[in-house]
Specification:
Blueprint: E1 7-8, H1 9-16, E2 19-22, E3 31-32, E4 37-38, E5 56-59, H2 61-68, H3 72-83, E6 89-92, H4 100-109, E7 113-115, H5 120-134, E8 138-148, E9 151-157, H6 163-172, E10 176-187, E11 193-196, E12 204-207, E13 211-214, H7 215-219, E14 227-229, E15 232-238, E16 252-257, E17 260-269, H8 275-290, H9 295-302, E18 312-314
Parallel strand pairs: 4-5, 5-6, 6-7, 9-15, 15-17, 16-18
Antiparallel strand pairs: 1-3, 2-7, 8-9, 8-10, 10-11, 11-14, 12-13, 16-17
Length: 321
Amino acid sequence: MSEQYFVTLDKIIEKHGLEEVYLPKPAGEIKILTNEVNRPGIVLTGYTAYFDPLRIQILGWTELGFLQNMTSPKRSEALGYWLGLHPAAAVVTRGLEIPDYFIKACEAYEVPLLRTEEETSPFQASLIGYLNRELAPRITRHGVLVEVYGEGVLIIGESGAGKSETAIELIKRGHRLIADDAVEIRRVSDSVLEGSSPSNIRHFIELRGIGVINARRIFGMGAVKLTEKIDMVLQLEDWDATKAYDRLGLDNVYTTILGVKVPAVTIPITPGRNLAVIVETAAMNNRQKKMGYNGARELMHSLGVDNMEPNDKEMEIWENS
């Protein structure tokens, strides 16, 4: 069974600057379990099929105006249809004045009631984006995540392969560190992975022979970043003379992380190779491929070999459930 993630209501209140109108218990004890939200217009008419009580409910001019135009008995009945299903929370947008009957109904059914000054659509989009990140499926894996020329590069390999040393060199060359040693990876959409560092080791790098350093303190705020999309995976491994390494780059190699396919490259390590320059080149090459240019295909064309089409290959780097 997959792990159930949640975010507490107090974090949502703090993140979006919400006003607490009524809370049946401390906001830190109220868990939000889904990244979907709802506008309860149709439920107020009495149609409650398919209603998901786990969703945060958002009300604007339309919903409050609809209730205001009802007779008192009809209004009580409509609020009973909706609040009787015990939704996770209700948020009134645009800083609208909340009628006393609405507050009393929320109190009677013990439904948290909040208010925001934001307009309805922008608030809804912002809330969904926040919940997508906070409730996203996730894993933590050993590696280093850096931003290189705007590309999020996840560097993996055995301990001692030189991942942290490569990260330091990249920072010195103007790129940014997101995570060292442990990378938290979240699937924030069907096609996007986002990486970050656990808060307790954020900005720290371990260098064998020197110890642990704080990259932000030594190299400045411009050397670090909190999160970054993972655009490619670069695996470092010791050179194996019996292994045939890709020398053209014509084929598209991917690995799958949390169900998302990510371009992957294997870099054999030998003494004297400048890994930082190789990572920079790999990042720029990956960006060019995303924009439709493939240097290997251009070379084949210039050699008169136009029938070599790239193939997709899958590379296993982790066991993913």
